[in-house]
Automatic annotation (TrEMBL):
Organism of derivation: Thermonema lapsum
UniProt-recorded name of the protein: DUF3575 domain-containing protein
Entry keyword set: Signal
Pfam family, one: DUF3575
Signal peptide as annotated in the record: 1-25
Domain of life: Bacteria
Length: 192
């Protein structure tokens, strides 16, 4: 129950902060609220807010929530928080080609259906938390009516820790959450 409350509080704060900057939005388009178009495929929800700090830089904060994603036998439910710093070499922050450094914190509840020592069905449970970072390359386009489209990708690295509540560590498949990986996305948003 704590995760939905935390997520709601974070999203509310995020939206209020976005609307605070509406005065700048009419002329500079320094703000972008966006979501990942790939999220429904992953049974996830993403919400990101980007703010132009200068002509060449911006900061972004992203929230992600997974709604019971299945990886082999392991079910993941939880959230991730992704702050990001972006550099736009063409001096047009929030628009065009960018390079980004993107750390991430993730926290998931894990469940696996197992058979206990007596042959009865049971559920193994654990929590997984990780920290990591990615180096991203991408482009964000602005279209009429303040619509944005962004494509990005790049290598990532994560390290994590599993805490078993029931069952054993061998019951859980978390290998894809650790080590080197690839982070990518296709975002749609509104600039203001």
């Amino acid at each position: 129950m704590k995760i939905p409350v935390l997520l709601t509080a974070c999203l509310t704060t995020f939206c209020l902060t976005a609307f605070t900057f509406c005065g700048f939005a009419q002329t500079e388009k320094r703000n972008v609220i966006k979501t990942n178009l790939l999220s429904p495929l992953l049974r996830a929800a993403h919400l990101n807010y980007e703010y132009g700090l200068s002509k060449k830089t911006s900061a972004q904060l992203g929230f992600m929530y997974l709604f019971g994603v299945q990886q082999t036998d392991t079910k993941f439910t939880g959230f991730g928080i992704t702050p990001e710093f972006r550099f736009y070499p063409q001096e047009n922050a929030t628009q065009g080609f960018f390079l980004a450094l993107s750390p991430r914190y993730q926290s998931y509840n894990l469940e696996v259906s197992i058979t206990d020592n007596n042959g009865n069905p049971a559920t193994a449970e654990a929590t997984w938390s990780s920290v990591g970072a990615a180096f991203l390359v991408g482009n964000q386009w602005h279209f009429p009516k303040s619509i944005t489209l962004e494509l990005y990708g790049g290598p990532s690295y994560n390290v994590g820790n599993i805490k078993v509540k029931s069952g054993s560590e061998e019951n859980f498949n978390v290998g894809f959450l650790s080590g080197f990986g690839l982070r990518f996305g296709l975002m749609i948003g509104i600039a203001f």
